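Good morning C.,

I know you're traveling, so I'll keep this short. The sequence:
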Amino acid sequence: MIRIRRVYDSPQPGEGARFLVDRLWPRGMKKETLGLEAWTKAAAPSDALRRWYGHDPKKWEDFQRRYRAELDASPEAWQVILEAARHGPVTLLYSSRETERNNAVALRDYLLEKLQVRSSRSRGNRR
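The tokens, ready to paste straight into the viewer:
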């Protein structure tokens, strides 16, 4: 299970391993209060992509496509999150005010697809 949560919201029970997935550190937050497994800023969109997107809803589909291309090019950036998700719950933390169209949403969907593909391959090998 991979959840997403804004860093400024109260932690919930059962969040599991917590990963900050923003390139910039969230304002006013102390590292100790977040209880992170890791800050995976390399898994965040590039600065150029982040600036281009600017949380414009009209650019959401294209943002996801471009972000996925960046993720495909750097599997080492997100592999630690995927490995943690194979062993238990994971929460992706983000700081954006936009809750429906942000990099954590896109990253979660990307990682869930990766988990499904691996799971499908594993089931196929058991036959």
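Safe travels,
E.
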